[in-house]
Structures are given as C-alpha cells and as structure tokens.
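# nightly structure sweep
# worker-07 picked up a monomer target from the shared queue
# config: single-sequence mode, recycle default, output format = structure tokens
# input follows
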Amino acid sequence: MSENLSFKERAHELATQMTLEEKVSQTLFNSPSIPRLGIPAYNWWNEALHGVARAGVATVFPQAIGMAASFDSELIGKVAQVVSDEGRAKFNVASKNSDRDIYKGLTFWSPNVNIFRDPRWGRGHETYGEDPFLSSKMGEEFVKGLQGDNPKYLKAAACAKHFAVHSGPEAVRHEFDAVVSQKDLYETYLPAFKACVQEAGVEAVMGAYNRTNGEPCCGSKTLLTDILRGKWGFKGHVTSDCWAVKDFHENHHVTSTAPESAALAMNNGCDVNCGNMFYHLLTAQKEGLISEETITQSVERLLETRMKLGLFDPPEQIPWNGLGYEDIDKPDNAAFSEEASRKTLVLLKNEGNILPLDPKKIKSIAVIGPNADSRAALEGNYSGTPSEYVTVLDGIREKKGEGVRLFYAPGCHIFKDRTESLAQSGDRMVEAVEAAKAADISIVVLGLDANLEGEEGDDSNSYAGGDKRDLSFPGQQNELLEKVIATGKPVILIVLAGSSMDLRYAHEHAAGIVQAWYPGGQGGRAVASLIFGEYSPSARLPVTFYRQSSDLPEFTDYAMKGRTYRYLESEPLYPFGYGLSYTSFEYSNLKADAEPDGEGAASVSVFVKNTGSRKGAEIVQVYIERLDAPEEFKPLPIWSLKGFASVELDAGESKEVSFKLNAESFSLFGKDGRQVVLPGKAYIYAGGSQPDKISEGLRGQSVLKAEITLNCEKILG
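# output follows
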C-alpha cells in the first residue's frame, strides 16, 4: 500500500480488497484480524473520562463534573494531554505483547458532553454540567488535548457522547423517547456536540440509547445524517452505544428484526456497533435492506481512523512510539492530579471565616462520616486504578500537624441502616457523637459514590437504576449530621458526590460546607490542603444546587422550562457559577463595545483586584441578557454564560481581563431551531458569579452591568 496516498485513499484501497464477510467483521467493536491483508485485531472500546479507565493502574483525575467546576478549559486540556500520554503508553505496552483486549486501544469513548439538566440523573457527574457554553468549551479542550496537534497522526481518538438529548432516566433508557422542542434541541442539547465537531475536530461520535422525537439515536436520520454529517460536516466515524441497536426492535419497536435494526443504524450513518447486531448486516444485505456500498463506506471510515492513529504504519514513524510502562502513573502526573483536584473544590459556606483551620489553635479534630475513608468516593465512574489512594481521612492525618489529636468514626454506612449485619440499626452513631464531643471541631464527610449514582446496568443502586430518587443523603447520613451538629461543636461538611444534594440543613447549621465531587486519587490531599489553608479555593458550581426535589419538573420532561439557571423558576440554594474564596475581589471599569464589523461581536474588559490579604484565583464570568426579541424566539433565557477566565492575583494585585464575544454569543434560537443575531439591546454582566440576588447575597459582592446595542442581523444556522 502506497504511503504517498492520503489516509482516505489508503482506507478505500484496503477496503476494496475485502470480502463482504470481512467488511462486516470490521464494523464490530471487537474487530477480528484479517491476516491476508495485514490487518490486526482491534477492540474499539476504551474509556478515558478522567484518566485511562478500566485498564489497570493509571493517573485518576477528578471526575468530569469536578473539572467543570474549575471553569478552567486550559486545565482540562492539560489533563487530557496526560491522559493521552498514558493511553499511548498503555497501548504500546499492550501491542508489544500482542494484547488486543478490550480497553487496550486508542479510541477513547470520552468526553460525555450531555447536558446535566436534572440532578437526579446518575450519570450527570460524567458531564461538564448544565450549561451549553461551559460544556462546549470544556469538551472542546478535552478533545484537543486527547487527540494532540500532530499534523499527520492522532495521538488518540476522542468520542463525543451520547448524541443526543440524553440525560436519564437510566432505568428506561432502552425504551425512552426524549421529546424535545427544536428550540431546546438547538439552544441547549446540541451546542457542545457541535463545538466538539467543528472547533475540536473530534474523530468519533457515539449515539445515545434513547429515541429523540421518535427516532432511535443510533439510527436517527435527523441526528446522524441531517445534522451531524449534513449541517456540521462531520467526517469521522459514529459508534453505537453498547447493545443500543438491539433496542430498536426489542424495546423501541421501530423495527421488527435484528437485520432491520442493523440496516437502520448503518444506513443512517452508524459505522461501528458496540454489541453484536452488525453480524446481521450479512442477512440485511441479502434481504436488500442495505447495500454493500454502504457497508464499505462505514468500513472505510473505520480504517481511516485506525490509519490516523498510525496503526498501519511502521512504529518508528509514530511520534509517541517511545512512550512505555515507565510513563504511566508518573509522580509528576500524581502531583498534577492533586493540583487539578485543588481547582475543583467549591467552598459553599464559610461562616465567620472558620476556614482555613489553624492547627496551632486547635488540639483535636474529629473526622466523621462514611465517605471520610472511602476510596470509591475518590474515583467516580469510568475510572482507572490509582497507585495511591489518598482519602480525606488520609489527607487530614497528613496535614494536621503533630500537635493535633485526630479522632475517626465512620458514623454510619453510606446507605444501609447499619455497618454490621448482625448489629442493630445505627450501630456506629454513638461512636461518632462521642468523637465529636471529644474534639474541638468535626469534619463530617458525607455523600455518594458511583455505586449510588451511576449507569444503569452497573453496580448502581437497584431502586433507581443508577439515578437518585431525590436529593437527600441516603441511609442515616442526615441523622448523623444532625447528631454531630447537636453536640454544639463547630462542624465542617465535606460532600463527596457528583451532583447537587439537599443541603438545606447544613446551610442553616454547619459552619462550613465544601463540595468536593469525586476528587480523584489524590483528592483527600487536596481537600486537606484546602481545610488547612495551603491555597484559596476558586472553583464554581457547574450546576444549580436546588433546594429540594419538589422544585424540579418531572424527570422525564426534557423541556428546559424550570430547569438550570437559564430557565429557573424556583429559588436555588446555591446558584450555578457560585463559590467562595479565602480572599476577596473587587471589580471595576467594565467596558463593553460593539465591534464595527457588523457581525454582532463585542469586546468586553473589566478590572479585577484582589482586595484580601492572601493570594487567590478568581473565576471571572461574563453573562449576556437579551432585552427584546420577537415572539418566535421566546421564552428567552434569563441570561447565559458567554465567557469565563481564571485569574490568579497576589494580595493587592489587579489585572484587566478581556473577552472577545462573537456573533454566536448574542444569538437567539427560534421555535424552529433557527439561530440568528438580531438588532436590539443586551445587558452584559461581569463578575465572580451570576448577576442574581442569591449569588450576590452569599458572596457579598455585586456584579457589574453594561448595556450594548446590536445593529446587525445575521443568520447563523
């Protein structure tokens, strides 16, 4: 095969030499070898959500929702670069040993850029939160970091999933039809996928299990043919979710037989099947349901991806061939994981500046709670295995200093009513209360783990198929918190969970609250460093923390009305974009000027000053509110995030932060999904939070506001 040809030409040349049976074999996720053509076996299924997953030891970074809380797209790009280094190293080691098993390839089914529209969804912690703009920017940088910037080869192949309109309920995902308006589809559910395709050049897209507006996503003409390949010009390959094609006839009932399902999927652009339905393509072709040309087209797309990864070229030509076992889980990577974790922890409450703790002023600390010494609560789902687990208890023990006594008591099981099967209910409660009484301060570590919020079919909670029934802490955790607070000693609550919980009681009674998500293998060290003031927290909530489940629309309702900060109708406990610091910041001199290019763009700048006594990072956020619009574009979002930047400032230091807003920043979506920029007025807000009253009240800081007039009219899509 001539190496002077393009990958596309080489893929075509190779595919034309295959029999139909061989072609079909290559559309399966566990593609067998074809020795006569020099094609090795390849397993397409691999995961790298926050580190190389399910393939042994690897650096485990904070779960995706935590990285979204950093509001730092540059950080997530660097994380993805480390992940791709380790992924390449693992692939090289496996290949040299002829190990072509699952989770050993270079096609990583990450990132998950679905919108986390409802906190009950068990897989929401795999995403970058509820906002389309934040999700777009984080997903885009993750894809770029994973795939690399080599002009010829992909370092790894990223996959944006699950396309599209997918966010629970998990228990009915194989039969569920997500009905959504065209406005919500294009305004909320599609932007992150579009960014991954058009801005980052993602190599693969995975379809979702559910139907969207009646069409099964893995065989949807609307999604895969009209939008993905048609409107967006996607050139890569599409994979089904695992055994999703089988759902076409067994659960969605849009087809009657397996050959019909396989044909529907591939005819509409699904190229590789995670499952076994594409075996039936041979029968489908004989029955006239699909042409051999269509099968060949899919095979060529898949071969082209493998060629972009360098899998058909001499190893010495591949830039990353020198990476080996010693490049996996390096000490530098562990240190970077801790650094990343520090940037994900959100300080929600700090009454009387109780944090950070000064070890010189306390004699004893009680560390209490089922997640205090939990390894599972560090990981989240789709995780690798860190060579070192640092739990919150480990971290506090390491950081507290020699003169501070530490008491530890789990207090209760994470969801059961007892820790020992033969004991009575609440068998560890007394121990925890006594520990709290003996200590000067209690650090209570509650929450969930991926066994309680996760994917249907995994080890997730059987009663909700992976989702949460409500926002309450499970089991006896609420009771534990109440009894520890009743001792009268100060309590700091640390929440390890991938979604918002009901924190009303803690908000009223705990002295401090930290949302730590699933913070990765080094997470406990990062939490302890925050508690003892080694750095100032800067992260912000990438999701709304609702007060209670009754504030939410029905879980099965995919309309955005009443959901997320952009269309919220109830009063949240902690708003999207909110978070506290150990220092203070002041904003001034907001400027917002329409650009003279007539494209609807604007330049925005604002000065930020650290007015506190210590160094800290501030997340500067820019929101846009449109003041008027024709009826066909209503309802309008309350306001929408359109810019963010992390700025590190020494005490007393100030910087000017600038943003360039493009036409899309001011666009409106009509009821037909059409995206346009219209003349009219808009408010631009800049500050450390949303411009809402709750955020301003909690932070004690107002957001600056400027008015801008747009004179252009432009159709974007």
